Structure formats: structure tokens, C-alpha cells
């Protein structure tokens, strides 16, 4: 059974940092592209970062230069380092396994349960 479990969310002040983790199990982690998404209250889910099997990365303009996606295949874990956080980054953050072959940056087939990030003073 494929499982993705996020952790690391919480309350942080503006311009602070957080690192999210997503541990995968039930599949060969290194064989899949992975991504992070987020969803703020009342808004649609937003793709924010992609990492390929070769560790190439892509970012949404809203987070480029502030967030860094990475992966540790030995630990079956995906990360999202978030720096210079803004109140508008407040959302539930989800990791996703992308479709086999990585046809799109945002086409996930399995999702975690999410971890809440709140940026507020």
C-alpha cells in the first residue's frame, strides 16, 4: 500500500523558516517524481514544487527563491525547506507522488494527509 506521511508544519512568524518532510512507503521512492502542493482556505489546490528522479527541480513563481525541494532516496523522504515565509504562505501543505514517467509536474496519483503551516505574528 502506497503511503505518504507529511510532518514539520506549525506556526511561524513572518520571515521565519520551516522544513517539511514527507516519508513515502509501499513503493520504490527513487523511481518516482515527487511534488509539493498547498491549499489555503477558500482557494484551490496550488502546485508549488517538483523534483525529478534525477533531482532536477521546478518551482511556482509564488515560492521561487524562497522554497527548496529536495529528496533523500536512502530515507524515502521528500523535503521542502521554506525560508522568508509570508502570511500568504499559510495553507495545508501536501506531498504527492507523481504519475509514472513524470508526464506533468502536477499530476499526482497518491497524496499525503497534509501538514498545516501558519505564518502569523
Features:
121 residues; four-stranded antiparallel beta sheet; mainly beta; seven-stranded mixed beta sheet; globular; single chain
Beginning-to-end CA distance, first to last residue = 40 Å
The percent range for strand residues is over 45%
The helix content is under 10%
Q: Low-confidence stretches at least 5 residues in length (pLDDT < 50)?
A: none
Structure description:
There is one protein chain. This protein has 121 residues and is mainly β. The protein has strands spanning 3-7, 10-12, 18-25, 34-39, 46-51, 57-59, 67-72, 77-82, 91-98, 108-111, 115-119. Strands 2, 4, 5, 6, 9, 10 and 11 form a seven-stranded mixed β-sheet that branches. A four-stranded antiparallel β-sheet has the order 1-3-8-7, with no helix packed on it. β5 (46-51) and β6 (57-59) form a beta hairpin. It starts with a strand and ends with a strand. The mean pLDDT is 97.
Quick rundown:
Helix content is 0%, strand content 50%.
Structural topology:
Blueprint: E1 3-7, E2 10-12, E3 18-25, E4 34-39, E5 46-51, E6 57-59, E7 67-72, E8 77-82, E9 91-98, E10 108-111, E11 115-119
Parallel strand pairs: 2-11
Antiparallel strand pairs: 1-3, 3-8, 4-5, 4-9, 5-6, 7-8, 9-10, 9-11
Amino acid at each position: 500500500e502506497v503511503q505518504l506521511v507529511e510532518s514539520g508544519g506549525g506556526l511561524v512568524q513572518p520571515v521565519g523558516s520551516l522544513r517539511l518532510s514527507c516519508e513515502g512507503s509501499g513503493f520504490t521512492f527513487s523511481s518516482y517524481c515527487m511534488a509539493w502542493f498547498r491549499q489555503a482556505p477558500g482557494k484551490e489546490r496550488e502546485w508549488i514544487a517538483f523534483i525529478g528522479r534525477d533531482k532536477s527541480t521546478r518551482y511556482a513563481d509564488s515560492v521561487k527563491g524562497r522554497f527548496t525541494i529536495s529528496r533523500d532516496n536512502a530515507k524515502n523522504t521528500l523535503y521542502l525547506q521554506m525560508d522568508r515565509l509570508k502570511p500568504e504562505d499559510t495553507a495545508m501543505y501536501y506531498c504527492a507522488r507523481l504519475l509514472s514517467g513524470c508526464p506533468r509536474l502536477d499530476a499526482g496519483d497518491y497524496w499525503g494527509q497534509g501538514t498545516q503551516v501558519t505564518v502569523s505574528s
